[in-house]
Amino acid sequence: MAKIIISCAVTGSAHVPTMSDALPITPEQIADQSIAAAEAGAAILHLHARMPEDGRPTGDPDVYGRFLPVIRQATDAVVNITTGGAITMTVAERLAAAARFKPELCSLNMGSINFAFFPAARRISSWKHDWEEGYVRNSDDYIFRNTFRDIAYILETLSDAGTRFEHECYDVGHLYNLAHFLDRGLIKPGFFVQMVFGILGGIGADLDNLMFMKQTCDRLFGKDAYQWSVLAAGRHQMPFLTQAALLGGHVRVGLEDSLFIERGVLAVSNAQQVEKIRRILAEMGHEPATPAEAREMLGLKGGDRVEF
């Protein structure tokens, strides 16, 4: 594969403002960093929202409405709205923005998992906002919920809008969940699998696991039925994405997945990570897919059919 889709997950919900001054919080910051990431080579922008006053994750469509039109007017990148939101949100809260704006692409976690990031609290002695410490420390008791009923509800809610999905698979069992929905006809061939490695509670960032996940996809779906991409958390980000690209996978970077640009050095922006993975891909002889090429690969409806 000569062309590789670069996705950029701009802010997420697990990292808190104390962890990095580069993490975009306000709608203006999210818009600015998204546009810069697209200009650097990201074809897909994976977006969450935060309360502008303190960075708390929010599913409020009105907050999304403050940056989505700005991004669409400034770039042709595919906008991917989360349905994962934050682990403290209900399914309805997580789905609200996607249901209103009907994007080309949404993320969809393919099962329930323990989702923990509490070890990060050990490295922080002073917090910017009152909500942050409890949110991080209490993640040892968090479960990200997506039952079979939840997944079906999300798929059915957005089906009439022509929205497709970034199917986030945090473990091998999630691939079998995906196969279940494929058998039910709620997912169609040509789907997009995002393999997630290195989250505490999910499959580890080991090369053997990457190979097994890819082999499982091929066995369950057939090599021509899907596109696949890889993200890896924290320090695993760039080395693991390099391995994925060598195997022909697409890649995802962004401050949602890692706050760093190299060992011990915080990234200054999402665009910096996009630029780095683009250089790595170029050394392998790959070019970043344009938004138009990404739309063709993933069978997306087009940026003119969204509602923002």
Automatic annotation (TrEMBL):
One of its GO terms (molecular function) is 3-keto-5-aminohexanoate cleavage activity. PANTHER family: 3-KETO-5-AMINOHEXANOATE CLEAVAGE ENZYME, 3-KETO-5-AMINOHEXANOATE CLEAVAGE ENZYME-RELATED. It comes from Rhizorhabdus wittichii (strain DSM 6014 / CCUG 31198 / JCM 15750 / NBRC 105917 / EY 4224 / RW1). Keywords: Metal-binding, Transferase, Zinc. It comes from the Bacteria. Its cofactor is Zn(2+). It holds the Pfam family BKACE. InterPro entries: Aldolase_TIM, BKACE. Coiled coil: none annotated. This is 3-keto-5-aminohexanoate cleavage protein.
